[in-house]
Amino acid sequence: IDEAFRKEAVRILKSSIRTIKQVADDLGVGVSSLGKWKRQLDRAELMAGPHEDLHKELARLRRENELLRAERVDTVRADLTGRGGIWKSTGRKRMAVGCNGPPLS
């Protein structure tokens, strides 16, 4: 199944009043596959910004911030654990010594 088929399947789903199950059955694909394609294309469309629609642009920027925060946390954790980072116990959570960010749990 190529990208053109996926895009057309999602277009049909979005423009139809039928359920995702009905569309998936008509196309001969799984419901979970069609749902995944829709989420992927929606995310790609959202991140393609900037958008004229302020609600879409706000959603895109929030998603971008979420991705950047997750990337930052992953980088800090990798740096501290991959390079023999020093951990100190603060009771309930572990905190990297010398790290000004939030505790890593």
Summarize the structure.
By secondary structure, the chain is mainly alpha-helical. Helices cover about 65% and strands about 5% of the residues.
Q: What topology emerges from the helices and strands here?
A:
Elements: H1 3-15, H2 20-27, H3 31-47, H4 54-82, E1 87-89, E2 94-96
Antiparallel strand pairs: 1-2
Count of DSSP helices? 4
Write down the Rg: 21 Å
Look at the structure and give the mean pLDDT: 77
Query: What separation lies between the terminal Cα atoms?
Result: 41 Å
Shape: extended
Largest sheet: 2 strands, antiparallel
Helix-strand makeup class: mainly alpha
Low-confidence stretches: none
Measured as a percent range, the helix fraction is 55-70%
**Biggest sheet, spatial arrangement of strands:** 1-2
Give the tally of β-strands: 2
Our estimate of the beta-strand percent is 5-15%
Order of helices and strands: HHHHEE
How would you characterize this protein structure?
There is one protein chain. This protein has 105 residues and is mainly α. It is 64% helix and 6% strand. The protein has helices at 3-15, 20-27, 31-47, 54-82, and strands at residues 87-89, 94-96. Strands 1-2 form a two-stranded antiparallel ribbon. It is extended, with a radius of gyration of 21 Å. 5% of the residues are buried.
